[in-house]
Design goal:
It is built from 17 helices and eight strands. By secondary structure, it is of the alpha+beta class. A three-stranded antiparallel β-sheet has the order 1-2-3, covered by helices on one side. Helix 4 packs across helix 7 and helix 14 runs antiparallel to helix 15.
Length: 453
């Protein structure tokens, strides 16, 4: 939205500014993603200043002239927001633009022109404060209130219940940290020291997984960065991501290889063990979560020439994915004259361990298994890392990890194709599922080198 020589407001706004050396426009920060934050860019004396608007939008709705978002009912609904929300976004951008014009004109009255003061006035309605007494808990509550009416998910979806639960957990942990320090923790003070204390409490005292500890901490950081964009003073450790988090060890979970799948397929089984085996094989060739695997009875098989495909509306993400059926899955369908009868997920996990024991998978492997731990007088489920017989590590989720690892290892499917099957949005999320042995990676690289010699 170039204001040089034009009215600063768009549509019906007619505010004029001294535009001889000032420009302001809006841009998407991450236009290649499904959803992107909007930043405002100010040009003053051949120098660019950028600041966050606090708004993120589906990139498909952004207008080519960078003036705002589309407001047509059909297209905005398709992209997960309402026409009212789309109009509110445009109104907010207009308000920022109008505020900037007013602040600019006011600043021209001063003896010394300060462009940063103009930006702060446009962003916060007043010059940025040098200090703040707002607590981390207050910031998180304000962020959640904002999230109720402004979708904050990566793809523009409303905040999920599981995410809300992590924010509530974050509040509880900050309260506990504050009690240990003897006073509430301010947003301007939360830093590396608190991460170390928090990690000690979460992992060593509450027996949570390191990955869970990191996930809850990330929620705290998200709320604080949001507050920082709105003028709140936040510690530099948070702003510049200086927190040195402890990452979980790689290769934490076992997988089932293609040879082991062939072994299961060759076993003579009947009754519930046969059904468990066949559901497990289907899971290994479709990468479905157990919640979707146990609803296959309602899924129709579509035929496209010689290919058979199923369309699954995934329960967790709501994505509709097309999954081609492997010949082994088709064989199972023909033998059962349909999909095998589903079973309770808890029973399925118990039966998987029995199946692994029948297959003789007693070799010791490093992984995690669920055990009951007594915390504050209550027995809670926790995943404990260690070396166990492989059959004890079998779970329903192992199918998805095995699919991703096997397809990546054989090199016949690209990571982007694997993601379409697993439903992961980014390469980084997929990498967590792929458990390649470092020696296998070395051997593949060496094979390439030898072929080029």
């Amino acid at each position: 939205m170039n204001n040089c020589g034009r009215h600063c407001g768009r549509h019906r706004d007619t505010l004029r500014v001294n535009a001889r050396c000032m420009q302001i426009n809006f841009k998407l920060e991450q236009p290649s993603r499904l959803r992107s934050p909007i930043s405002a860019r100010v040009y003053y004396r051949k120098k660019r200043y950028k600041f966050a608007t606090g708004i993120s939008v589906p990139t498909a709705l952004w207008l080519d002239d960078n003036s705002g978002v589309k407001t047509g009912a059909q297209i905005v609904t398709k992209n997960g927001i309402t026409p009212i929300t789309a109009q509110n976004i445009n109104d907010t951008l207009l308000k920022i633009q109008r505020s900037f014009a007013i602040a600019w004109n006011e600043e021209l009255k001063n003896d010394e022109f300060d462009i940063q003061r103009v930006i702060d006035q446009a962003k916060y309605g007043k010059a940025k404060l040098a200090s703040s007494n707002k607590t981390v808990i207050q910031v998180i509550h304000e962020y959640l209130a904002f999230a109720q009416s402004n979708p904050i998910g990566r793809n523009g979806e409303p905040i999920k219940d599981t995410t809300l639960k992590q924010y509530r957990t974050a509040v509880q942990r900050v309260v506990a940290l504050g009690k240990r320090e003897g006073h509430p923790i301010l947003a301007s003070k939360l830093c590396q020291k608190h991460w170390s204390e928090y990690y000690q409490m979460e992992v060593n005292e509450l027996k949570k997984k390191p990955s869970y500890a990191s996930a809850v901490w990330v929620r705290m950081q998200a709320a604080l960065r949001w507050a920082h964009e709105r003028g709140e003073v936040v510690h530099d450790d948070i702003i510049f991501n200086r927190i040195k988090r402890i990452h979980p060890k790689p290769y934490r979970r076992a997988i089932v290889s293609l040879d082991e799948l062939d072994q299961l397929r060759a076993m003579e089984l009947t009754g519930v063990m046969e059904r468990t085996r066949d559901l497990f094989i289907i899971g290994n060739w479709t990468a479905l979560r157990v919640s979707d695997l146990m609803k296959l009875e309602k899924v129709r098989v579509l035929e496209y020439g010689s290919r058979r495909v199923i369309q699954v509306d995934t329960q967790k993400t709501g994505d509709l994915i097309d999954i081609p059926l492997h010949p082994q899955v088709i064989t199972i369908l023909e033998r059962w004259q349909g999909w095998p009868k589903p079973m309770n997920p808890q029973d399925y996990n118990i039966n998987l361990k029995k199946l692994g024991k029948l297959a003789g998978w007693t070799q010791k492997e490093y992984g995690e298994k669920v055990s009951l731990v007594k915390i504050d007088g209550k027995m809670e489920r926790r995943e404990k890392s260690g070396t166990y017989p492989k059959y004890e590590l079998l779970t329903s989720h192992l199918s998805r990890r095995s699919f991703a690892t096997n397809m990546y290892s054989v090199g016949m499917m690209s990571s982007s194709d694997i993601r379409k099957m697993t439903g992961h949005k980014t390469e980084r999320l997929l990498e967590v599922y792929i458990h390649s042995n470092p020696k296998d990676v070395t051997n593949r690289i060496d094979d390439v080198f030898q072929s080029l010699a």
